[in-house]
Write a structure and sequence with these properties.
Layout (H helix, E strand, L loop, with lengths): L1 H14 L1 H4 L21 H15 L20 H9 L2 E4 L8 E4 L13 H7 L18 H10 L15 E2 L7 E2 L20 H16 L3 H35 L1
Antiparallel strand pairs: 1-2, 3-4
């Protein structure tokens, strides 16, 4: 009986659209932050932040990002103050014990777009938009996956049953995703004049999200390089010391 139940469960799982469709290998791009010497392109990360503000922030939060962190990608202290002041955060209690709203400060974290998960689900057809703070670290080859996901919207193939309110995405597991296409040509007008093609927008926002997930990446890479150089120097010194030591012993 136990074997029959397990077989039935397996059959139901495999027949589910979410599991029946095979996952597609994501597209692979070269990123400035790849490799031992990888680093972030500050201008690109700033463009990605603009995309997040104008496109993604309506649904997705960045809980781990404080406004002051933006100074690390080239924004001045005054610019950060201006950016923060565009947002309202809840503070308090005041002297009367009441909570109140105020303009955000650089020390504040990015406010969430919804007060709670229930409101978020209600505004998105029952789907809960995930926090994007660690999105590029959430799965293997994260930057390429997120890039592919944003570029992977297509018309469903013939015979594919798309559930109501869902969009077909070549790279999403099961190929049905609640989020409609967000990245299109000229969706934003870049402050630095860069042409905003869909591909450029996707690349920029992925760079920004990976910086949010890996804010110490450059420092970590720099530390790794120093450690490697020290190890190399130590190996060379040890080699010559060994030769000198054995040369003395051979004389005896």
């Amino acid at each position: 009986m136990r074997k029959i139940l397990l077989a039935a469960a397996a059959a139901l799982t495999l027949s589910s659209p979410a599991f029946a469709a095979e996952e597609v290998e994501p597209m692979h791009r070269e990123w400035t932050f790849d490799g031992v010497l990888g680093k972030f392109d500050r201008q690109q990360v700033q463009r990605g932040f603009q995309v997040y503000k104008e496109v993604c922030a309506a649904c997705h939060s960045l809980s781990y990002l404080a406004f002051r962190n933006l100074e690390d990608v080239g924004y001045s202290e005054d610019q950060v103050k201006v950016i923060a002041a565009e947002y309202q955060v809840q503070d308090g209690p005041d002297e009367n014990g009441d909570m109140f709203d105020r303009a955000a400060r650089p020390s504040d974290h990015m406010p969430k777009p919804f007060a709670n998960d229930q409101i978020a689900r209600a505004a998105n057809g029952g789907a809960l938009p995930p926090d994007l703070s660690l999105m590029t670290k959430a799965r293997e080859d994260g930057p390429n996956y997120v890039y592919s996901l944003m570029m992977g919207y297509k018309e469903p193939p013939s015979g594919f049953e798309l559930m109501p309110g869902m969009s077909y995405n070549e790279y999403f597991p099961g190929h049905q995703i609640a989020m409609p296409v967000q990245i299109t040509d000229d969706r934003v007008v870049y402050a630095d004049g860069t042409k905003a093609t869909a591909e450029q927008i996707a690349v920029d926002v992925v760079a920004f999200l990976h910086w949010v997930a890996e804010p110490k990446l450059e420092a970590r890479h720099a530390t790794g390089v120093r450690v490697m150089l020290f190890a190399l120097l130590f190996t060379v010194l040890a080699f010559f010391y060994k030769k000198r030591l054995w040369a003395r012993l051979e004389k005896h």
